[in-house]
Every structure is written in structure tokens, then in C-alpha cells.
Write a structure and sequence with these properties.
alpha+beta, Pdz3 Domain, 2 domains, 6-stranded antiparallel beta sheet, two-stranded antiparallel sheet, 10 helices, about 20% strand
């Protein structure tokens, strides 16, 4: 249990540190004084001054922050303008604000790339392989087995998933001869694809794949890993955006979202991912990093997207929004986000209790 909790905080810390390092690095490059680089949220538990920056660890272990000189409007009368965030160009401020999001996206790419490098890369083949068989389905009754390679359907070649499905659908309700390769030997299997079948099964009742896993030369793997890492980050980005869209749609319709998880839910899923090995955990961290990137770029108060929105408004209006007004908006937004965080945590705990403990909860939150 203690090990799982430490692992959870380690995962969260890596994601947050990478995000905040993006703000920190771009701010430094832009000539902004970084007053504090904090992991967690105040009150402060520990701090050390290195150069002109205070590096701190705070008691609330969710999140982190970079305090930039001139970011707080209350300091306006006591600023060193040459190193103040508020006195930099819109372009530099926008770059600083979005740097954390970019770093989280790049971290996801790296994590996915590492997974592919060690677990192999997918590639399309002309072999349609049976990877699973539904119980009591025509395929099971006929004698299909996992790892069978289907060569022909009713005498016609099947060289892709789409081609196989099309041929099976074409012969629904008929006694069909399937040419199958099993263990290097060719054989015929007769089966009758169903006209009516369960919604989660096909006519034949098999799960197929024409993709195989291969390991290219070692020197190629980092490059292919980055390519597939970007594809996965983009894929999960679309999934996350759709998920957030559904949450906001549900809230607008007066419905409480059912599939949302807070810190307790993420802890449970992290524990579950780790149980499958380090590569599974890294993949899950990549998904979390994409989540964090998209959440932060949303135009909501106190988030990076909210700060970027004020910079964009300034660009459209030709003048800055009143600093005190912006500060109030972000403060109210932060309070609202913290309240939401506590509410979701309470919801997670209630689900944990209803599920009868942590082991059942792992399955419950991942449905």
C-alpha cells in the first residue's frame, strides 16, 4: 500500500515537474525572473534558494507552480521591469504560458516511444490471424483456434481485416469453407456465419488482426518510436478532447458526469497499470501527460489556457485587461478548481466504499 502511494506521487511529480520546467525554462530564456519553482501547492514544507530562485516542496501534493516576477498585479508598484513577466511582449508571455502544455505533450511522445522501442512496433501484413474466439460462436463450434491464419473464405483470398469481414458478411447464413493455416499446415474448416448475432460479436464470432509486432534494427527504433509516439499522443489527444467535451455537455445539461476520476481514481488506475509492468506504467503516464496538457490549455481561469486567453484579448483590444480584474478572475478560478478537486475526490472515495475496497475499485473506475 505504501509502495503504491509513493509510486503514485512519483508519477504525479514527474508530470508536474516536466510541466513546470517548461514554464521555468522559457521564462529564463525570455529574461523573466523566476522567483520560485514549487512542487505541490502551499503551505511550504521545504525551500532552498539557488541563485535568485527559491526551489520549494509544498504540503499539498497535487500540482505545482512557477512564480514569475511581475505575474501578480499587486506587485506593479515594486517591479524590476526589465525582468518582469508583465513587461515582456505578448509573444514571449504566450510562449511562457504555453510551454508547460508543450512539455507535457512532448513527454507523452517520449513515454510512448520508449514503450514501442522495448515492446516492438506494429506493421500491417497480408495474414489475417485469429486472436480471440467468442464462446459458443460458429467459429468455436467449427473448431477455429487462436493463432489460426485465415487464407481463404469460400475460395476467395482474405489478405486484410476488411477483406475478411466483407467476405464473411457476403456469405452469412451459408455453409462456408475457410482455408486455414495452423502450425505451418493448411486445412479446411467449415462454419456458418450467423445472420443474427450479439452486438459485441461478429457473424463468425472471431477477433482478428492483420497486424504483427516486429523489432527493427536497434538504430532505427528511437526514430520509429518518436513517429509512433506522436501518433499515439495525437490519438489520445482526440480521445481526451472528446471526453472533456462530453463532460461539459453533461454539465450543461444538468447531468453529473459518471466517468470522471480525481486523485483517488487516478491512484487506483496507476496501481493497476503498474501491476502489468513498467512499460504499461509508462504508457499510462503518457496518457496522463496528454490529459494534463489538454486540461491546462483550456481557456479556464487559473489554468494556462485562461492566462493565454487574457493575452489574446489584449492583442485584440490593443491594451491590457485591468490587472486587478484578471487577478480576481484567476483567484476565483483557482478556488473553484480546488473545490471541484475536493468534490471529485469525495466522489472517488464514495465509489471506493461502494465498490467494497481498493481491489474492486480498480475494476470499478476503469469500466
Amino acid at each position: 500500500m505504501i509502495g503504491s502511494i509513493l509510486l503514485f506521487f512519483l508519477v504525479l511529480s514527474v508530470l508536474v515537474l516536466v510541466h513546470e520546467f517548461g514554464h521555468y525554462w522559457v521564462a529564463k530564456k525570455s529574461g523573466v525572473w523566476v522567483e520560485e519553482f514549487g512542487l505541490g501547492l502551499p503551505p511550504r514544507a521545504w525551500g532552498k534558494m539557488i541563485g535568485k530562485t527559491l526551489y520549494s516542496i509544498n504540503w499539498l501534493p497535487f500540482g505545482g507552480f512557477v512564480k514569475l516576477h511581475g505575474e501578480d498585479s499587486s506587485e506593479e508598484g515594486h517591479l524590476h521591469t526589465e525582468v518582469a513577466f508583465s513587461h515582456k511582449s505578448k509573444k514571449k508571455r504566450a510562449a511562457i504560458v504555453t510551454a508547460g502544455v508543450v512539455m507535457n505533450f512532448l513527454l507523452a511522445v517520449v513515454l510512448f516511444a520508449v514503450g514501442y522501442t522495448f515492446s516492438g512496433f506494429p506493421r500491417e501484413t497480408t495474414n489475417v490471424k485469429v486472436v480471440d474466439i467468442a464462446k459458443d460462436s460458429p467459429a468455436e463450434v467449427a473448431g477455429f483456434q487462436k493463432d489460426d491464419i485465415v487464407k481463404t473464405v469460400a475460395g476467395e483470398s482474405a489478405t486484410s481485416n476488411e477483406g475478411f469481414v466483407s467476405l464473411v458478411e457476403k456469405h452469412k447464413g451459408e455453409d462456408v469453407d475457410f482455408g486455414v493455416e495452423r502450425g505451418g499446415q493448411l486445412m479446411d474448416i467449415h462454419a456458418t456465419p450467423r445472420k443474427d448475432h450479439p452486438s459485441n460479436e461478429g457473424s463468425l464470432g472471431v477477433v482478428i488482426s492483420s497486424t504483427e509486432i516486429y523489432f527493427p534494427p536497434v538504430w532505427q527504433r528511437p526514430f520509429l518510436g518518436v513517429y509512433y509516439g506522436f501518433k499515439d499522443a495525437y490519438f489520445w489527444g482526440k480521445i481526451v478532447l472528446a471526453g472533456f467535451g462530453k463532460i461539459f455537455t453533461d454539465l450543461a445539461g444538468g447531468t453529473v458526469p459518471k466517468d470522471i476520476a480525481g486523485p483517488v481514481g487516478i491512484y487506483a488506475l496507476t496501481t493497476q497499470a503498474a501491476s502489468f509492468g513498467i512499460l504499461s506504467l509508462l504508457n499510462f503516464m503518457g496518457i496522463l501527460s496528454v490529459n494534463l496538457a489538454i486540461l491546462n490549455i483550456m481557456p479556464l481561469p487559473a489554468l494556462d489556457g485562461g492566462r493565454l486567453l487574457f493575452i489574446l484579448i489584449e492583442g485584440v483590444m490593443g491594451k491590457k485587461v485591468v490587472p486587478k480584474f484578471e487577478a480576481v478572475v484567476h483567484t476565483v478560478g483557482m478556488i473553484a478548481l480546488l473545490l471541484l478537486l475536493f468534490a471529485i475526490t469525495a466522489y472517488d472515495i464514495r465509489r471506493l466504499i461502494e465498490a467494497g475496497g481498493i481491489s474492486n475499485f480498480l475494476d470499478f473506475v476503469s469500466r
